[in-house]
UniProtKB/TrEMBL annotation:
Residues 76-357 form the PRISE-like Rossmann-fold domain. This is PRISE-like Rossmann-fold domain-containing protein. InterPro entries: NAD(P)-bd_dom_sf, PRISE-like_Rossmann-fold. GO terms for biological process: lipid metabolic process. The lineage of its organism: Eukaryota, Viridiplantae, Streptophyta, Embryophyta, Tracheophyta. GO terms for molecular function: oxidoreductase activity, acting on the CH-CH group of donors. It comes from Chenopodium quinoa. PANTHER family: 3-OXO-DELTA(4,5)-STEROID 5-BETA-REDUCTASE, LOW QUALITY PROTEIN: IRIDOID SYNTHASE-LIKE.
């Protein structure tokens, strides 16, 4: 079994990690059959599909000794690392240090064996992060910005960005490992442990509206209401990760990863309203913008009540809610659209219909008992 494919998926309980594990365990997975080690900081959540991994392991990647104690014994076994972990810190500088430390710790623990077979793969959202980074840093919009559609060879923007730090960590090992970098847009998927999960956030807001008999309002501006955006289904993201891992041509390359279509938030709001069972409220911006961040500030208790009454998976509003970041995106003055032409030129043709994606993942979140 010298050539067996053995994957370590770090951050396996997040929405990207679960799907990467599932894509690897699929009977038709390229490069398979795969043995999958799924790693998380905490124990396996109740809703986790245990068939997605062969072994579930826990360690705290911030702590080298803990990481090394768990991974060193596996180091001559694991052939591929899929990085889907995120540890959201107080601010972007904090993220840079924490995250590059986590990745460095994992690579160091596996290093004794890292040879030509080994592979590190991680996702990385440049524009989104740049914006949030800028936001975190200066607290106001107006960051330097590239012209959409965004493509992979655009220069880095001059804001602190932990994805750049991760990319640099991987590149610093380039003589020993091969890698691919995957850059999603707004990610849709299902987990109770993903901080940047827009669908869970929107669902929570919709449920709170229903509970309090309040209108489900759009918190973005007219520009995003009327202009195009794209998103990334975690299934497409996972498919691209596996494709990147087994195709030599993709070695040491970065790829955008989106569904390949576009939508307006006006249209998508209609879909969300149908799915959540709330009335569609057209954008009314005469009196300025509706501030969701402000609205949600004291709604933690209401959400806890909903969780209690409906018997949902215990999850605090603060744990999932990326209200600030998402609201910021919804108020941008550019189209969040990335080019997928590099992926296609290199032979990756995965796609999804974004409206179907949203309906599918909302259904999944219900099935998993994360939303009512
Ligand atoms: C890690 O392990 C080393 C060697 O066993 C020890 O000297 C060090 O104190 C440990 N560090 C932490 C933070 O536990
Ligand atoms: C990591 O763990 C392995 C095996 O337990 C041990 O031999 C090695 O010294 C550790 N590495 C470091 C840097 O502590
Ligand atoms: C696509 O790649 C470009 C260049 O790196 C980047 O600016 C853009 O953000 C990527 N798309 C996304 C959605 O991250
Ligand atoms: C780019 C960056 O900030 N890298 C940091 C990652 O974390 C290590 C360890 O904490 C720092 O030494 C690096 O400067
Ligand atoms: C329209 C567009 O975004 N074209 C890009 C396709 O991808 C290549 C490679 O990343 C870019 O150089 C093009 O600008």
């Amino acid at each position: 079994m010298a050539n067996a494919s053995v994957a370590l998926v770090v951050g396996v309980t997040g929405m990207a990690g679960i799907n990467i594990a599932q894509a690897l365990k699929s009977p038709t997975a390229q490069g398979g059959p795969w043995t999958v080690y799924g790693a998380a900081r905490r124990a396996m959540p109740t809703w986790f599909p245990s068939s997605a991994v062969d072994h579930f392991i826990t360690f705290d990647a911030v702590d080298f000794n803990d990481t090394n104690a768990t991974l060193a014994p596996l180091s001559n076994h694991i052939t591929h690392v899929f990085w889907a972990a995120i540890n959201v810190g107080r601010d972007q500088e904090d993220n840079i240090i924490t995250n590059s430390t986590m990745l460095t710790n994992v690579i160091k623990a596996l290093m004794p064996i890292i040879g030509p077979l080994s592979y590190v793969i991680f996702r990385y959202k440049r524009v989104l992060r740049n914006i949030l980074a800028h936001f975190n840093f200066l607290g106001q919009p107006g960051a330097a910005q590239h012209e959409p559609p965004f493509h992979e060879d655009m220069a880095r923007l001059p804001h602190p960005n932990f994805y750049h730090a991760l990319e640099d960590v991987v590149k610093s090992y380039a003589s020993d490992i091969r890698y691919t970098i995957h850059r999603p847009s707004i990610i849709v998927g299902a987990s109770s442990r993903s901080v940047y999960n827009a669908l869970v956030m929107l669902a929570a807001y919709a449920e709170i509206c229903k509970y309090q008999n309040a209108p489900f309002r759009f918190f973005g501006n007219r520009y995003t209401w009327e202009h195009f955006s794209d998103m990334t289904d975690t299934r497409v993201l996972a498919e691209q990760h596996v494709w990147g891992a087994v195709n030599k041509k993709a070695n040491n390359q970065a790829f955008n990863c989106t569904n390949g279509d576009v939508f307006t938030w006006k249209k998508m709001r209609g879909v969300l309203c149908e799915e959540f069972g709330v009335e569609f409220v057209p954008l009314d911006d005469k009196d300025g913008l509706f501030d969701l961040v402000d609205e949600m500030k004291d709604k933690g208790k209401v959400w806890n009540q909903i969780v209690e009454e409906k018997g949902l998976v215990k999850m605090k509003l603060e744990e999932i809610a990326c209200f600030i970041g998402f609201q910021y995106l919804m108020r941008s003055d550019f189209q969040l659209v990335s080019s997928m032409n590099k992926s296609k030129e290199f032979g990756f043709f995965g796609y999804a219909d974004s409206i179907k994606s949203v309906r599918f993942w909302i259904g999944k979140l219900r099935e998993m008992n994360i939303i009512p």
